[in-house]
């Protein structure tokens, strides 16, 4: 071997850059997994999330009486105690407590559920992106609970005031089955809890370079259509409930656009012109 062959270049050619060490795969889980491995991973995460939900259900069932009282508080408040909630089945009270505990258990277990969601998607992320685990889990949990609370504290009062006024307009005193009330209220509460995740996902998808505010603005007409379709799917079949969900969803979408703009990735600046050259030389 000659001396010329052993003289390796110590500098990279102009225009060639080494990959960012933060974006170099750092483990075997970075490799592409076959579909069977993805399904096994999904099964593991679902089982662990289900275990967390069972634990949350057990905790919530111990206080299910208090939880049911809190869930029915908005309609009792706006009706000044005049609405009568009734049960028409032998086991309706028992199954009502079961359903209340399930919904409350989901809120209790939400940190563990979001953790399992993160662990499922993390193999496809770079090392620098994996550092978002704690912010994702904490913020997703907070907004999930905040969405449910907003529905309970604000939306229920507005919705029940309207519905009870309709009863009053026809001179009828409402008597509502607890199973029907529970189905209506829990479905609406979970819908708000899920939709409040929109700004969180907008932030993380923007930081991962998957979406940006320009794309969200270009797709605004489709987003509005999708929001009303989702509102119709997630709420009971009446226009008031759909609008009660669709209007906050539109505001959350606008907020998500703002979040995507504020936390957008920095764009590459154009390369500066060579020193001493003011433009193309004119012969």
Describe this structure in words.
The chain is mostly helical. It folds into 2 domains: 158 residues, no CATH class; 68 residues, no CATH class. Strands 1-2 form a two-stranded parallel ribbon. α9 runs parallel beside α12. The chain starts with a helix and ends in a 21-residue tail after the last helix. The C terminus is likely disordered.
Top keywords for this entry?
single chain, 283 residues, mainly alpha, 2 domains, two-stranded parallel ribbon, 12 helices, 2 strands, globular
Sequence-ordered SSE layout with sheet pairings:
Elements: H1 3-6, H2 35-62, H3 64-79, E1 84-86, H4 92-108, H5 110-121, H6 127-130, H7 133-169, E2 175-177, H8 178-195, H9 198-207, H10 213-218, H11 220-234, H12 239-262
Parallel strand pairs: 1-2
Percent in helix: 55-70%
Widest β-sheet, arrangement of strands: 1-2
DSSP summary: helix tally: 12
Mean pLDDT: 79
| Proportion in β-strands | under 5%
Tell how many strands the DSSP assignment holds.
2
Question: Sheet bearing the most strands, described?
Answer: 2 strands, parallel
- Sequence of secondary-structure elements: HHHEHHHHEHHHHH
Rg to the nearest angstrom? 27 Å
| Poorly predicted residue ranges | 21-31, 268-283
How many structural units, i.e. domains?
2
SS content category: mainly alpha
The termini sit apart by 49 Å
- Give the overall form: globular
């Amino acid at each position: 071997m000659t001396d010329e062959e052993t003289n390796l270049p110590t500098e990279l050619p102009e225009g060639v850059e080494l990959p960012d060490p933060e974006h170099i795969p750092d483990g075997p889980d970075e490799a592409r997994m076959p579909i069977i491995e993805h399904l096994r991973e999904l099964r593991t995460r679902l089982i662990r999330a289900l275990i967390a939900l069972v634990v949350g259900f057990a905790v919530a069932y111990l206080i299910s009486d208090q939880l049911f009282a809190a869930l029915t508080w908005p309609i009792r408040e706006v009706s000044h105690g005049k609405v009568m909630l009734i049960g028409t089945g032998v086991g309706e009270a028992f199954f009502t407590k079961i359903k209340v505990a399930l919904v409350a258990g989901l809120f209790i277990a939400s940190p563990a559920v979001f953790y399992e969601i993160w662990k499922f998607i993390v193999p496809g992320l770079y090392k620098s992106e994996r550092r978002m685990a704690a912010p994702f889990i904490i913020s997703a949990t907070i907004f999930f609970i905040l969405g449910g609370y907003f529905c309970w504290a604000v939306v229920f009062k507005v919705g029940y005031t309207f519905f009870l006024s309709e009863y009053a307009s026809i001179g009828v005193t409402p008597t509502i089955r607890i199973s029907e009330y529970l189905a209506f209220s829990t479905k609406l509460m979970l819908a708000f809890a899920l939709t409040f995740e929109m700004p969180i996902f907008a932030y993380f998808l923007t930081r991962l370079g998957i979406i940006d505010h320009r794309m969200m603005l270009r797709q605004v007409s489709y987003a509005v259509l999708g929001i009303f379709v989702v509102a119709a799917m997630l709420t009971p079949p009446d226009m008031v409930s759909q609008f009660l969900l669709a209007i906050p969803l539109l505001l959350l979408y606008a907020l998500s656009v703002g979040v995507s703009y504020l936390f957008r990735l920095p764009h590459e600046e154009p390369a500066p012109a060579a020193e001493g050259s003011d433009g193309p030389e004119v012969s």
